[in-house]
Every structure is written in structure tokens, then in C-alpha cells.
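Action item from last meeting closed. Structure (192 res):
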């Protein structure tokens, strides 16, 4: 399975790196994940919300699974999810890839990017608790859960819930044994 985690200036580190580690660990435990960190535009690195510079493997393609991290929404940072929504190109690119043939997932306030892309319209979803009221402004059945699975769109709440989201997707695509082996190897107690 081709997985792309899309990075942008100001994304939250754990929103992207947590799922990345889960998918990489799943791949080494019998799963079938080929994970890439990508950006919308060509870049060598992207700087995350806490200053971590992360190398980028390429530009956004048309993966089987697209993961959108959050960051910078609640504090209205100059860089982050809110800036990406204002720019409009990332939500547009996500909307273009929402075709029912791939799964689109978000972590934390990445859900707000999905909402602005129109991907969450008429669906159940969650985002970081600090942005739940913002999400309620859309035609979304907002849930206060760690992970909300609505078929080809899966959303997760606050930062650490991205690990639960990735484990749920590993279980969906490769079965509970692989997901449990990953959680055990990471010494992570699943919560969602």
C-alpha cells in the first residue's frame, strides 16, 4: 500500500512522525506499507511547528492512503493548518484526490484542512478538541472520540491520537495481529 504523509510548513511533528513510525513498523512486521513524506511543492525539507526540519521524499502524488497532519490551527500560527487553508492549494489538492478509490486520513487539526477541502461534508469526524467548534461550522457529525472511521475518510483527535489512527488503519489493511505486534513493539497502549 502506497502511503503519503503530506508535510507543510508548521505541521505538528508528532501528527506526522507518529503515523510514519507505525506504518514503517507494520511494514517490518508483515504489513505492506510503502511510506513517503511528501510536500505539495518540491522541497528538500519542511520545518514543523516546534522547529524540527524534516526531509521530504517528493511531491504529493495519488497514494492509496493520504495522511494529513495538523498544527498551527488553534494558536493561529503564521505557518500551519490555518495558513494552508488560507492559501487554498492543499485543500484543493486533497479534494482532487478524494475520489472513493483511496483513503484520506487526518490527524488533529488536519481535519480542518479536510473540512475546507469538502472531504468531511455529511460525514462523521473529529479534530483536536480546541477546534471542535470550528469543525461544527461545517456539515459534519462531530464526534468527541480519538478516531472516527467513516470508510474512505478517517479522522483522529489531538496529537497522540495519530498513533491510534495509524494502528486502526494497519488493522484494517493488514489485520489485528500486525497492528497488535506494532503496538506491542512500540510499547504503546491503544486507546482508540
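Sequence:
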Amino acid at each position: 500500500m502506497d502511503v503519503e504523509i503530506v508535510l507543510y510548513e508548521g505541521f505538528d511533528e508528532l501528527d506526522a512522525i507518529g503515523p510514519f513510525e507505525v506504518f514503517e513498523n507494520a511494514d517490518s512486521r508483515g504489513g505492506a506499507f510503502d511510506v513517503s513524506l511528501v510536500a505539495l511543492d518540491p522541497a528538500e525539507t519542511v520545518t514543523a511547528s516546534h522547529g524540527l526540519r524534516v526531509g521530504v521524499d517528493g511531491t504529493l502524488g495519488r497514494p492509496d492512503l493520504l495522511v494529513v497532519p495538523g498544527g498551527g490551527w488553534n494558536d493561529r500560527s503564521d505557518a500551519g493548518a490555518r495558513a494552508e487553508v488560507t492559501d487554498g492549494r492543499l485543500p484543493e489538492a486533497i479534494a482532487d484526490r478524494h475520489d472513493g478509490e483511496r483513503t484520506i486520513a487526518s490527524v488533529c487539526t488536519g481535519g480542518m484542512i479536510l473540512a475546507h477541502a469538502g472531504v468531511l461534508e455529511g460525514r462523521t469526524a473529529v479534530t483536536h478538541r480546541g477546534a471542535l467548534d470550528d469543525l461544527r461550522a461545517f456539515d459534519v457529525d462531530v464526534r468527541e472520540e480519538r478516531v472516527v472511521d467513516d470508510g474512505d475518510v478517517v479522522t483522529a483527535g489531538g496529537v497522540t491520537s495519530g498513533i491510534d489512527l495509524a494502528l486502526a488503519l494497519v488493522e484494517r489493511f493488514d489485520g489485528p495481529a500486525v497492528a497488535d505486534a506494532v503496538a506491542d513493539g512500540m510499547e504503546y497502549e491503544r486507546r482508540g
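Note appended to the action item: The first helix runs from residue 13 to 27.
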